What we know:
The protein is built from 19 helices and no strands. It has 525 residues and is mostly helical.
Amino acid sequence: MSEDTARVDHQVMGMARGASLNITGAACTQLALLTLTVFLSRTLGSAGLGRYAQAYALLVLLVLVAALPFGSGTVRFIAMHRAEGDEAAVRGALRLGVGLTAVTALCLAAPLAALAPRLADGVFHDPLLTTPLRLVALALPAAALAESALLATMGFSRMRARALIKLIAEPVLRVGGFVILVLLGLGLSGAMFAIVGSTAIEAALAGRALRRYVRRYLGPAGVVPRYEPRQLLVFSLLSGGAALATTGLVWADTLILGAFRPSGEVGVYVAATKIVALATFVLPAINQAFAPRITNLYHRGETDRLQHAYRVVAGWNLRLTLPAFAVLVVFPADLLDLVGPGLASGAIATVILVTGQLVNTATGPSAMVLTMSGRAGWSMANNGAALVLNVGLNLWLVPAHGIVGAAAAWALALIVVNLARVAQVWLFLHMSPFHLGQLRALLAGGLALLAGWSVEALTAGAIPGAARLVLGGFAVCAGYVAAISVLQFDAEDRQVVRMLARRLGVHRHPTRAGEAGGEGHGSAT
């Protein structure tokens, strides 16, 4: 094996290690959130689910607003200053990013608590949202502190703390607290108090993890921090604005639906978005493992390795999501029926949402490549344009078409912004996420889709929906694995499968089909 090949293999395996832990954490997060959604819909009805979703959407957006001044740039600046060996600048970025984010959150929480009745009645036309909004204000400072501290840990190229705390501990604590409080009769208020408690514990754990990383990687505390507020502020406003616009793209439709349609309809839409999110949970998990390496490789001028990693991540994302997309397209109503009664009306919206996510997956981590290579302004412009397009389409479509209009607005905005990102990465860096391996994955996904449709056609009306879903899901997965085996794994796919298998405790030898795959390290999937 040549030195270049060994370095690339080491890079791929490094991303796989970070991604495998993130994927495990993300799976726990999505399962916990799905459990929460099911429990909410079955105990409080779709209207209660809708109110919870609107309050939680506001919390998520306000956390990002709090991180705008300095917190959003800590990952890049800590990674960059560590690569330069500048400990004083690392400490300065840490203090600015974490401390000022917490202060900003406090400044946002006070007016939200005071204005909660007016927002609930005047904007959402639902007085029952008053208490949830006040509890959002109570949870906001701890949630923002936890987010900024965990972002800082990522600057040390360590995914473990964020995965264990944000992706596993907080969702599990939230669901556990919610179940206990609702069973005690607290209803929606119990669900919101669970958020307050889980975010407080998350903040404490995040602070402890950050202190441990600082002691481990920066040495004694005697080094005087050096602050570079202007550079950090400019980058954080740009990258944080891009993140806010991206998250706004996720949650704007929920808030607009709440302003124009009943909370029960919001609940149906939220159920559809949750099952689609479950299918795509691997995307942020893999992309976050890739993020610190973008800055490092770009800063070192290793564009060939960056191009290679870009394609590898795009290939992983697509291959790991296609089977779930196929199940969602074939059995949307059956899946929604499992979440709760009366939710199957969101089937059409679910299929539309999958269309947007398929394009998002296939185009790879283009937004992150732009941001972490120093082009945060373009990312902010892209995401801002997508948010404006999404909001405009929602305002146009939601009053007349409800959840179908919201889904169409979101999917179209997502498709447009991702195609724009791919074009910009090619223009600035001469890199593309596309590779022949993605075509093989799409062919395998198409065969899996046909297998699912065959089961649906043969069993429609003959067996219960849950049984049909199990049988169809098995057919989709079996068809996909068979197609992938025939089309053959590449060398990097086999490396990643082995890594993931070890992480999951599965020990097996590669299949003969896998061993027959090509060995070239330049393959993307």
